Amino acid sequence: MEQTIQKDLSVGGGSWVTVDVYGEPHAPGLVVVPGAMSDAHGWRHVATALDAWPSVTVVNRRGRTPSGPLTSTYSLQAEVEDLGVILDEFKGTQALFGWSYGGLIALLAANERPLRQVIAYEPVMRPFGSHALPDLHAAEETADWDATVEIVNRQIAGLDTAQVEALRADRQEWAALRYLSRPAYAELAALNLAPPPEEMARQADRVDLIIGQCNHGTAPYGTSFDDIRRRVTRADVHVLPGQGHLAHIQAPTELGHLLNGLATVR
Q1: Domain shared by 99 and 46, yes or no
Q2: pTM of the model
Q3: Is the terminal CB of the chain with fewer CB neighbours within 10 Å at N or C?
Q4: Is the same domain home to 117 and 12?
């Protein structure tokens, strides 16, 4: 489906979030919450591949233009509250989908309010990436975004030198990663600061967890997925063949088809 509107929503404290809406803007549908190193623009190809819902609302979380700043009071709870503002605006949301850090936010939101369906792709939780926090903090203090991108990709995602250099060789892609890396330290610190609840998605009628086949049982994403799985007792687990953490970039149509198949009967 095609994008129809972009909307700004105040979340208080001097910040705001924007959402990109695809399809019928006033029809309840799917809300998408991207994770770290990602924004609403990066999910456009998945959004256009979705047709099981009359609308798809993609959140541009705070810290990403044109959304507002993280602010000094930023926390994981602030992300959950931001999502609550969006869900209040788009009443009757049929399903909530989150990727990575966005998956954690979605699962926690379903502890605070009833939701029909929550879908999460490789959600992460504490202590995910905690070993990289000192280096990320040092890079942020000097605004060294090249170093931040390298830390995220090498120390957390586990890419080797050749893979990182291949990313750097694409100047446009590297520039985009530098921009998206600016909230990385604050987001990872927030993720690791809040103790996770023993149960997630308590008020969701249905929960679907997705993992890429390449990450199944493998650190860091597969092992964090397993930690989440133990806290979502009623979830169905689905595997996306041939994919890893970046399926929304590397296989957006396949991910879209999987999500379409998970749509509950309306």
Answers
A1: yes
A2: 0.97
A3: C
A4: yes
The angle, 0 to 180 degrees and rounded to 10, between the axes of the packed helices 76-89 and 101-112 is 70
**For the chain, how big is the Rg over CA atoms in Å?**
17
| CATH number of residue 30's parent domain | 3.40.50.1820
Structure tokens at 196: 């996770």
Same domain? 217 vs 234: yes
What length does the chain have? Answer: 266
Q: Between vectors from CA 58 to CA 73 and to CA 230, what angle results, nearest 5°?
A: 70
The letter for the amino acid at 242 is G
How many structural domains does the chain have?
2
Spatial distance between the Cα atoms of 13 and 73, rounded to a whole number of angstroms: 8
Q: What is the domain extent for residue 150? A: 131-180
55 domain residue, yes or no: yes
* Structure-block tokens of residue 106: 């979605």
Would you state the structure tokens that stand for residue 98, as one six-digit string? 């989150």
What is the rounded average pLDDT of the residues 168-178? 95
Distance in angstroms (rounded) separating the CA atoms of residues 48 and 59: 15
Q: Is residue 188 part of a domain?
A: no
Q: How do residues 125-168 score in pLDDT, each as one tens digit?
A: 999 999 999 999 999 999 999 999 999 999 999 999 999 999 99
Q: Across the strands, what pairs with 210?
A: 121, 238
Phi, psi angle pair for 153, to nearest 5°: -80, -30
Whether 145 and 168 share a structural domain: yes
**Strand locations in the chain (E):** 3-12, 15-23, 30-33, 55-60, 95-99, 115-121, 204-212, 236-240
